[in-house]
Amino acid sequence: MRALDATQLYFTRAAEHLGLQSRVCQLLADANRELQVQLPIEMDDGHLATFTGYRVQHNNARGPMKGGLRYHPEVDLDEVRSLAALMTWKTAVVNLPYGGAKGGIAVDIHQLSERELERLTRKFVSKLHEVIGPDTDIPAPDMGTDYRAMAWIMNEYGKFEGFNPACVTGKPVELYGIPGREEATGRGVGILCLKLLSRLGRDPQQTRVAIQGFGNVGLHTARFLQLADCKIVAVSDLTGAYFKPGGLDISEMIQFVHRGDGTLRDYRGTELMPAEQLLELDVDVLIPAAVGGVITNSNVHHVKAPIIIEAANGPIWPDADDHLAEAGVTVLPDILANAGGVTVSYFEWVQNRQYYDWSLDRVRQELDRVLSGAFEEVWQMAGERKMSLRTAAYILGIDRVRQAVELGGIR
Ligand code: NAD
Protein backbone atom coordinates (compact mmCIF):
# COMPACT_ATOMS: atom_id res chain seq x y z
CA MET A 1 0.00 0.00 0.00
CA ARG A 2 1.16 3.56 -0.71
CA ALA A 3 1.07 6.28 1.95
CA LEU A 4 -1.34 8.22 -0.23
CA ASP A 5 -3.80 5.30 -0.46
CA ALA A 6 -3.95 5.17 3.33
CA THR A 7 -4.69 8.88 3.73
CA GLN A 8 -7.28 8.74 0.93
CA LEU A 9 -8.99 5.76 2.52
CA TYR A 10 -9.29 7.48 5.91
CA PHE A 11 -10.54 10.59 4.13
CA THR A 12 -13.16 8.63 2.16
CA ARG A 13 -14.46 6.88 5.28
CA ALA A 14 -14.88 10.19 7.10
CA ALA A 15 -16.43 11.82 4.01
CA GLU A 16 -19.03 9.02 3.89
CA HIS A 17 -19.92 9.61 7.56
CA LEU A 18 -20.28 13.32 6.78
CA GLY A 19 -22.40 12.61 3.68
CA LEU A 20 -20.19 14.92 1.58
CA GLN A 21 -21.26 15.47 -2.04
CA SER A 22 -18.82 14.02 -4.55
CA ARG A 23 -17.84 17.43 -5.99
CA VAL A 24 -16.95 18.66 -2.47
CA CYS A 25 -15.04 15.43 -1.85
CA GLN A 26 -13.00 15.96 -5.00
CA LEU A 27 -12.27 19.56 -4.04
CA LEU A 28 -11.03 18.52 -0.61
CA ALA A 29 -9.07 15.50 -1.74
CA ASP A 30 -7.01 17.10 -4.52
CA ALA A 31 -3.90 19.20 -3.87
CA ASN A 32 -3.91 22.88 -4.91
CA ARG A 33 -0.39 22.75 -6.29
CA GLU A 34 2.39 20.17 -6.67
CA LEU A 35 5.97 21.09 -7.42
CA GLN A 36 8.90 18.88 -8.30
CA VAL A 37 12.28 20.54 -8.74
CA GLN A 38 15.76 19.38 -9.69
CA LEU A 39 18.44 20.59 -7.29
CA PRO A 40 21.98 20.49 -8.71
CA ILE A 41 24.67 21.41 -6.16
CA GLU A 42 28.44 21.40 -6.10
CA MET A 43 29.73 18.84 -3.60
CA ASP A 44 32.74 19.50 -1.36
CA ASP A 45 35.03 17.48 -3.66
CA GLY A 46 33.99 19.60 -6.66
CA HIS A 47 31.70 17.13 -8.43
CA LEU A 48 28.12 18.01 -9.31
CA ALA A 49 25.24 16.06 -7.73
CA THR A 50 21.55 16.50 -8.50
CA PHE A 51 18.75 15.83 -6.00
CA THR A 52 14.97 15.94 -6.42
CA GLY A 53 12.83 18.15 -4.20
CA TYR A 54 9.07 18.33 -3.76
CA ARG A 55 6.52 20.72 -2.27
CA VAL A 56 2.83 19.87 -2.27
CA GLN A 57 0.40 22.60 -1.23
CA HIS A 58 -2.77 20.74 -0.44
CA ASN A 59 -5.39 23.21 0.75
CA ASN A 60 -5.51 26.87 1.85
CA ALA A 61 -9.21 27.32 2.60
CA ARG A 62 -8.52 27.98 6.31
CA GLY A 63 -5.33 30.03 5.92
CA PRO A 64 -1.71 29.88 4.76
CA MET A 65 -0.50 26.35 4.19
CA LYS A 66 1.77 24.83 6.80
CA GLY A 67 3.90 21.74 6.75
CA GLY A 68 7.32 20.24 7.38
CA LEU A 69 10.26 19.63 5.12
CA ARG A 70 11.60 16.06 5.15
CA TYR A 71 15.09 14.96 4.08
CA HIS A 72 15.08 11.20 3.61
CA PRO A 73 16.20 8.84 0.81
CA GLU A 74 12.66 7.46 0.37
CA VAL A 75 10.92 10.80 -0.09
CA ASP A 76 8.81 10.82 -3.27
CA LEU A 77 5.84 12.74 -4.64
CA ASP A 78 3.38 10.15 -3.39
CA GLU A 79 4.61 10.38 0.21
CA VAL A 80 4.69 14.18 0.15
CA ARG A 81 1.13 14.32 -1.27
CA SER A 82 -0.12 12.11 1.51
CA LEU A 83 1.66 14.10 4.23
CA ALA A 84 0.39 17.41 2.79
CA ALA A 85 -3.23 16.20 3.02
CA LEU A 86 -2.59 14.99 6.58
CA MET A 87 -1.41 18.52 7.45
CA THR A 88 -4.67 20.03 6.18
CA TRP A 89 -6.72 17.77 8.46
CA LYS A 90 -4.25 18.15 11.35
CA THR A 91 -4.26 21.96 11.43
CA ALA A 92 -8.06 21.84 11.25
CA VAL A 93 -8.41 19.29 14.09
CA VAL A 94 -6.49 21.57 16.44
CA ASN A 95 -8.27 24.58 14.90
CA LEU A 96 -5.23 26.57 13.79
CA PRO A 97 -5.80 29.22 11.07
CA TYR A 98 -3.83 27.22 8.52
CA GLY A 99 -4.13 24.88 5.59
CA GLY A 100 -1.77 22.01 4.84
CA ALA A 101 1.40 21.47 2.81
CA LYS A 102 4.50 19.28 2.90
CA GLY A 103 7.90 19.20 1.26
CA GLY A 104 10.86 16.94 1.00
CA ILE A 105 14.13 16.15 -0.70
CA ALA A 106 15.18 12.60 -1.56
CA VAL A 107 18.56 12.60 0.16
CA ASP A 108 20.48 10.61 2.74
CA ILE A 109 21.66 13.35 5.10
CA HIS A 110 24.37 11.07 6.49
CA GLN A 111 26.12 11.13 3.11
CA LEU A 112 26.35 14.94 2.98
CA SER A 113 28.52 17.40 4.91
CA GLU A 114 26.88 20.31 6.71
CA ARG A 115 28.05 22.72 3.97
CA GLU A 116 26.54 20.45 1.28
CA LEU A 117 23.24 20.31 3.18
CA GLU A 118 23.26 24.08 3.43
CA ARG A 119 23.84 24.45 -0.33
CA LEU A 120 21.05 21.96 -1.01
CA THR A 121 18.60 23.77 1.28
CA ARG A 122 19.43 27.16 -0.22
CA LYS A 123 19.02 25.78 -3.76
CA PHE A 124 15.59 24.42 -2.80
CA VAL A 125 14.51 27.84 -1.48
CA SER A 126 15.89 29.59 -4.56
CA LYS A 127 13.53 27.44 -6.66
CA LEU A 128 10.52 27.82 -4.36
CA HIS A 129 10.63 31.32 -2.89
CA GLU A 130 7.89 32.71 -5.13
CA VAL A 131 5.30 30.22 -3.90
CA ILE A 132 6.16 30.08 -0.19
CA GLY A 133 6.00 32.83 2.43
CA PRO A 134 4.32 33.90 5.69
CA ASP A 135 0.90 34.34 4.06
CA THR A 136 1.06 31.47 1.58
CA ASP A 137 3.06 28.43 2.72
CA ILE A 138 5.29 28.17 5.79
CA PRO A 139 7.80 25.28 6.00
CA ALA A 140 8.95 23.70 9.29
CA PRO A 141 11.26 20.84 10.39
CA ASP A 142 10.41 17.18 9.88
CA MET A 143 12.51 14.01 9.65
CA GLY A 144 16.08 14.82 8.72
CA THR A 145 15.76 18.60 9.14
CA ASP A 146 16.17 20.76 12.21
CA TYR A 147 16.64 24.38 13.34
CA ARG A 148 19.80 24.78 11.20
CA ALA A 149 17.94 24.13 7.95
CA MET A 150 15.15 26.47 9.07
CA ALA A 151 17.71 29.26 9.69
CA TRP A 152 19.16 28.73 6.18
CA ILE A 153 15.62 28.89 4.74
CA MET A 154 14.88 32.19 6.53
CA ASN A 155 18.16 33.67 5.33
CA GLU A 156 17.82 32.50 1.71
CA TYR A 157 14.15 33.51 1.49
CA GLY A 158 15.10 36.99 2.74
CA LYS A 159 17.57 37.42 -0.14
CA PHE A 160 14.72 37.11 -2.65
CA GLU A 161 11.66 38.40 -0.84
CA GLY A 162 13.03 40.65 1.93
CA PHE A 163 13.58 39.91 5.62
CA ASN A 164 10.60 38.10 7.14
CA PRO A 165 11.18 35.60 9.97
CA ALA A 166 7.56 34.39 9.82
CA CYS A 167 8.34 32.69 6.46
CA VAL A 168 9.49 29.51 8.27
CA THR A 169 9.13 28.01 11.77
CA GLY A 170 11.33 25.79 13.90
CA LYS A 171 14.16 28.35 13.73
CA PRO A 172 16.87 28.56 16.42
CA VAL A 173 15.64 30.41 19.52
CA GLU A 174 18.50 32.90 19.03
CA LEU A 175 17.22 33.66 15.52
CA TYR A 176 13.50 34.37 15.88
CA GLY A 177 12.65 30.84 17.04
CA ILE A 178 10.39 30.14 20.02
CA PRO A 179 11.35 28.38 23.25
CA GLY A 180 9.76 24.95 23.40
CA ARG A 181 9.46 24.32 19.63
CA GLU A 182 12.02 21.54 19.63
CA GLU A 183 10.26 19.60 22.39
CA ALA A 184 6.76 20.49 21.19
CA THR A 185 5.78 17.41 19.18
CA GLY A 186 7.06 14.95 21.81
CA ARG A 187 5.63 17.00 24.65
CA GLY A 188 2.29 17.09 22.83
CA VAL A 189 2.37 13.30 22.39
CA GLY A 190 3.02 13.03 26.14
CA ILE A 191 0.21 15.45 27.09
CA LEU A 192 -2.27 13.55 24.92
CA CYS A 193 -1.06 10.18 26.17
CA LEU A 194 -1.79 11.26 29.77
CA LYS A 195 -5.23 12.53 28.79
CA LEU A 196 -6.01 9.23 27.10
CA LEU A 197 -4.74 7.21 30.08
CA SER A 198 -6.94 9.27 32.37
CA ARG A 199 -10.03 8.73 30.15
CA LEU A 200 -9.30 5.00 30.09
CA GLY A 201 -8.95 4.93 33.88
CA ARG A 202 -5.28 3.96 33.85
CA ASP A 203 -2.65 5.08 36.33
CA PRO A 204 0.54 6.51 34.70
CA GLN A 205 2.61 4.88 37.46
CA GLN A 206 1.34 1.45 36.36
CA THR A 207 1.92 2.17 32.68
CA ARG A 208 4.77 0.53 30.72
CA VAL A 209 5.64 2.32 27.51
CA ALA A 210 7.66 1.34 24.41
CA ILE A 211 8.73 4.05 21.95
CA GLN A 212 9.94 3.37 18.41
CA GLY A 213 12.37 6.10 17.31
CA PHE A 214 14.67 8.14 19.52
CA GLY A 215 14.95 11.26 17.37
CA ASN A 216 13.31 14.60 18.07
CA VAL A 217 9.82 13.22 18.71
CA GLY A 218 10.67 9.93 20.43
CA LEU A 219 13.23 11.46 22.75
CA HIS A 220 11.00 14.29 24.00
CA THR A 221 8.04 11.95 24.35
CA ALA A 222 10.17 9.62 26.48
CA ARG A 223 11.42 12.46 28.66
CA PHE A 224 7.93 13.91 29.23
CA LEU A 225 6.31 10.56 30.05
CA GLN A 226 9.11 9.53 32.38
CA LEU A 227 8.72 12.81 34.30
CA ALA A 228 4.99 11.97 34.49
CA ASP A 229 5.94 8.68 36.24
CA CYS A 230 5.29 6.30 33.35
CA LYS A 231 7.81 3.49 33.02
CA ILE A 232 9.63 3.62 29.68
CA VAL A 233 10.72 0.01 29.23
CA ALA A 234 11.96 0.13 25.62
CA VAL A 235 13.09 2.60 22.99
CA SER A 236 14.55 1.94 19.56
CA ASP A 237 16.34 3.67 16.75
CA LEU A 238 17.98 2.50 13.54
CA THR A 239 20.67 0.71 15.58
CA GLY A 240 18.23 -1.60 17.43
CA ALA A 241 15.75 -1.77 20.32
CA TYR A 242 16.94 -1.21 23.91
CA PHE A 243 14.81 -3.00 26.50
CA LYS A 244 14.87 -2.93 30.31
CA PRO A 245 11.77 -4.32 32.09
CA GLY A 246 12.49 -2.26 35.24
CA GLY A 247 12.53 0.99 33.23
CA LEU A 248 15.21 2.79 31.20
CA ASP A 249 17.20 5.78 32.40
CA ILE A 250 15.96 8.20 29.73
CA SER A 251 18.08 11.17 30.91
CA GLU A 252 21.22 9.07 30.59
CA MET A 253 20.16 7.82 27.13
CA ILE A 254 19.52 11.38 25.94
CA GLN A 255 22.98 12.43 27.14
CA PHE A 256 24.46 9.41 25.36
CA VAL A 257 22.76 10.36 22.08
CA HIS A 258 23.85 14.00 22.36
CA ARG A 259 27.47 13.08 23.20
CA GLY A 260 27.81 10.56 20.36
CA ASP A 261 26.69 10.32 16.74
CA GLY A 262 23.01 10.97 17.48
CA THR A 263 22.14 7.26 17.85
CA LEU A 264 22.03 4.72 20.70
CA ARG A 265 24.70 2.52 19.08
CA ASP A 266 26.82 0.81 21.80
CA TYR A 267 24.55 2.05 24.64
CA ARG A 268 25.02 -0.52 27.44
CA GLY A 269 23.04 -1.80 30.42
CA THR A 270 19.93 -2.92 28.54
CA GLU A 271 18.85 -5.92 26.52
CA LEU A 272 19.52 -5.23 22.82
CA MET A 273 16.94 -6.58 20.37
CA PRO A 274 16.30 -6.17 16.61
CA ALA A 275 14.61 -2.77 16.14
CA GLU A 276 11.30 -4.14 14.79
CA GLN A 277 10.82 -6.39 17.83
CA LEU A 278 9.92 -3.34 19.94
CA LEU A 279 6.52 -3.21 18.23
CA GLU A 280 5.65 -6.64 19.59
CA LEU A 281 6.55 -6.10 23.25
CA ASP A 282 4.00 -6.77 25.97
CA VAL A 283 3.53 -3.14 27.12
CA ASP A 284 0.56 -0.91 27.99
CA VAL A 285 1.33 1.85 25.51
CA LEU A 286 3.14 1.57 22.18
CA ILE A 287 4.33 4.81 20.58
CA PRO A 288 5.63 4.54 17.00
CA ALA A 289 7.67 7.76 16.62
CA ALA A 290 9.90 6.97 13.64
CA VAL A 291 8.64 6.33 10.11
CA GLY A 292 5.36 5.51 8.37
CA GLY A 293 3.94 2.05 7.58
CA VAL A 294 5.55 0.10 10.44
CA ILE A 295 2.42 -1.74 11.63
CA THR A 296 1.04 -3.74 8.72
CA ASN A 297 -0.90 -6.91 8.03
CA SER A 298 2.29 -8.91 8.45
CA ASN A 299 3.05 -7.90 12.04
CA VAL A 300 -0.22 -6.56 13.49
CA HIS A 301 -1.15 -9.99 14.89
CA HIS A 302 1.95 -9.81 17.11
CA VAL A 303 1.20 -6.35 18.53
CA LYS A 304 0.20 -6.74 22.18
CA ALA A 305 -0.21 -3.15 23.44
CA PRO A 306 -3.83 -2.16 24.19
CA ILE A 307 -3.05 1.52 23.47
CA ILE A 308 -1.13 2.91 20.48
CA ILE A 309 -0.27 6.59 20.09
CA GLU A 310 0.70 7.54 16.52
CA ALA A 311 3.53 9.99 17.14
CA ALA A 312 4.92 9.35 13.64
CA ASN A 313 2.85 10.18 10.57
CA GLY A 314 1.01 7.17 9.16
CA PRO A 315 2.69 4.37 11.15
CA ILE A 316 -0.33 2.01 10.87
CA TRP A 317 -1.63 0.81 7.49
CA PRO A 318 -5.46 0.78 7.23
CA ASP A 319 -5.84 -3.05 7.15
CA ALA A 320 -3.82 -3.28 10.33
CA ASP A 321 -5.83 -0.40 11.81
CA ASP A 322 -9.06 -2.32 11.16
CA HIS A 323 -7.60 -5.38 12.84
CA LEU A 324 -6.57 -3.33 15.88
CA ALA A 325 -10.05 -1.78 16.12
CA GLU A 326 -11.65 -5.25 16.08
CA ALA A 327 -9.20 -6.36 18.77
CA GLY A 328 -10.30 -3.43 20.97
CA VAL A 329 -6.99 -1.56 20.78
CA THR A 330 -7.32 2.21 21.32
CA VAL A 331 -5.39 4.15 18.67
CA LEU A 332 -4.78 7.88 19.05
CA PRO A 333 -4.37 9.00 15.41
CA ASP A 334 -1.42 10.99 14.04
CA ILE A 335 -3.50 14.01 12.98
CA LEU A 336 -4.16 14.65 16.67
CA ALA A 337 -1.31 12.85 18.45
CA ASN A 338 1.58 14.71 16.80
CA ALA A 339 -0.13 18.08 16.36
CA GLY A 340 1.95 19.65 19.15
CA GLY A 341 4.70 20.56 16.67
CA VAL A 342 2.50 22.53 14.30
CA THR A 343 0.73 24.14 17.25
CA VAL A 344 3.96 25.60 18.64
CA SER A 345 5.02 26.48 15.08
CA TYR A 346 1.85 28.55 14.97
CA PHE A 347 2.88 30.32 18.21
CA GLU A 348 6.29 31.02 16.65
CA TRP A 349 4.62 32.51 13.56
CA VAL A 350 2.35 34.68 15.75
CA GLN A 351 5.38 35.77 17.80
CA ASN A 352 7.33 36.64 14.63
CA ARG A 353 4.47 38.66 13.20
CA GLN A 354 4.20 40.61 16.45
CA TYR A 355 7.99 40.94 16.90
CA TYR A 356 7.32 39.83 20.47
CA ASP A 357 8.85 37.13 22.70
CA TRP A 358 6.85 34.34 24.33
CA SER A 359 8.21 32.66 27.48
CA LEU A 360 8.61 28.87 27.69
CA ASP A 361 5.91 28.76 30.40
CA ARG A 362 3.46 30.55 28.16
CA VAL A 363 4.24 28.24 25.22
CA ARG A 364 3.72 25.14 27.37
CA GLN A 365 0.47 26.44 28.87
CA GLU A 366 -0.96 27.37 25.47
CA LEU A 367 0.13 24.04 23.98
CA ASP A 368 -1.65 22.20 26.76
CA ARG A 369 -4.78 24.31 26.26
CA VAL A 370 -4.96 23.79 22.47
CA LEU A 371 -4.24 20.05 22.54
CA SER A 372 -6.52 19.36 25.51
CA GLY A 373 -9.38 21.18 23.77
CA ALA A 374 -8.89 19.19 20.56
CA PHE A 375 -8.60 15.92 22.47
CA GLU A 376 -11.89 16.53 24.31
CA GLU A 377 -13.71 17.33 21.06
CA VAL A 378 -12.41 14.18 19.36
CA TRP A 379 -13.04 12.00 22.43
CA GLN A 380 -16.60 13.28 22.77
CA MET A 381 -17.42 12.79 19.10
CA ALA A 382 -15.97 9.27 19.08
CA GLY A 383 -18.06 8.40 22.16
CA GLU A 384 -21.30 9.93 20.91
CA ARG A 385 -21.09 8.45 17.41
CA LYS A 386 -19.50 5.16 18.52
CA MET A 387 -16.57 5.46 16.14
CA SER A 388 -12.80 5.24 16.36
CA LEU A 389 -10.77 8.25 17.51
CA ARG A 390 -9.25 8.32 14.01
CA THR A 391 -12.58 8.61 12.22
CA ALA A 392 -13.76 11.22 14.73
CA ALA A 393 -10.58 13.29 14.25
CA TYR A 394 -10.88 13.09 10.46
CA ILE A 395 -14.54 14.10 10.59
CA LEU A 396 -13.76 17.08 12.82
CA GLY A 397 -10.90 18.25 10.60
CA ILE A 398 -12.56 17.62 7.23
CA ASP A 399 -15.79 19.29 8.28
CA ARG A 400 -13.93 22.44 9.35
CA VAL A 401 -12.20 22.59 5.96
CA ARG A 402 -15.51 21.92 4.17
CA GLN A 403 -17.13 24.82 6.03
CA ALA A 404 -14.27 27.14 5.08
CA VAL A 405 -14.46 26.10 1.41
CA GLU A 406 -18.23 26.55 1.28
CA LEU A 407 -18.27 29.84 3.20
CA GLY A 408 -15.42 31.30 1.17
CA GLY A 409 -16.79 30.07 -2.12
CA ILE A 410 -14.85 28.25 -4.79
CA ARG A 411 -12.02 30.60 -5.72
P1 NAD B 1 14.14 12.26 13.50
O1 NAD B 1 14.84 12.15 12.19
O2 NAD B 1 14.59 13.27 14.49
O3 NAD B 1 14.15 10.84 14.26
C1 NAD B 1 13.72 9.64 13.68
C2 NAD B 1 14.14 8.49 14.60
O4 NAD B 1 13.57 7.28 14.12
C3 NAD B 1 15.64 8.27 14.68
O5 NAD B 1 15.98 7.93 16.02
C4 NAD B 1 15.86 7.06 13.75
O6 NAD B 1 17.02 6.33 14.11
C5 NAD B 1 14.60 6.30 14.07
N1 NAD B 1 14.22 5.31 13.07
C6 NAD B 1 14.12 5.45 11.72
N2 NAD B 1 13.71 4.30 11.18
C7 NAD B 1 13.54 3.43 12.20
C8 NAD B 1 13.12 2.08 12.30
N3 NAD B 1 12.79 1.41 11.21
N4 NAD B 1 13.05 1.50 13.52
C9 NAD B 1 13.38 2.18 14.63
N5 NAD B 1 13.77 3.47 14.61
C10 NAD B 1 13.85 4.07 13.41
O7 NAD B 1 12.59 12.47 13.12
P2 NAD B 1 11.46 13.11 14.05
O8 NAD B 1 11.42 14.58 13.79
O9 NAD B 1 11.57 12.60 15.43
O10 NAD B 1 10.14 12.52 13.35
C11 NAD B 1 9.66 11.22 13.64
C12 NAD B 1 8.25 11.06 13.09
O11 NAD B 1 7.40 12.06 13.67
C13 NAD B 1 8.11 11.24 11.56
O12 NAD B 1 7.11 10.36 11.12
C14 NAD B 1 7.64 12.68 11.41
O13 NAD B 1 6.89 12.90 10.23
C15 NAD B 1 6.75 12.79 12.64
N6 NAD B 1 6.55 14.18 13.07
C16 NAD B 1 7.60 14.96 13.44
C17 NAD B 1 7.37 16.26 13.87
C18 NAD B 1 8.49 17.15 14.37
O14 NAD B 1 8.18 18.25 14.89
N7 NAD B 1 9.74 16.75 14.29
C19 NAD B 1 6.06 16.77 13.90
C20 NAD B 1 5.00 15.94 13.51
C21 NAD B 1 5.26 14.64 13.11
Order of helices and strands: HHEEEHEHEHHEHEEHEEEHEHHHH
Main beta sheet, described?
Answer: 7 strands, mixed
| Average pLDDT metric | 96
For the record, give the distance between the C-alpha atoms at the N and C termini, rounded to a whole number.
33 Å
Query: Radius of gyration in whole Å, from Cα?
Result: 20 Å
Bound molecules: nicotinamide-adenine-dinucleotide
How many alpha or pi helices? Answer: 13
% residues in beta strands: 15-25%
Contiguous low-pLDDT stretches (5 residues minimum) are: none
Return the structural class.
Answer: alpha/beta
Oligomer: single chain
Number of strands: 12
**How do the strands line up in the largest sheet?**
9-8-7-6-10-11-12
Apparent shape: globular
Approximately how much helix is present in the residues? 40-55%
Please explain how this structure is put together.
The chain is an alpha/beta fold. Helices cover 45% and strands 17% of the residues. The chain contains 13 helices and twelve strands. Helix 6 crosses helix 11. The longest helix is centred in the C-terminal third of the chain and has 26 residues. It is globular. The chain starts with a helix and ends with a helix. The mean pLDDT is 96. The structure holds nicotinamide-adenine-dinucleotide (NAD). Nicotinamide-adenine-dinucleotide (NAD) binds next to helix 7 and strand 7.
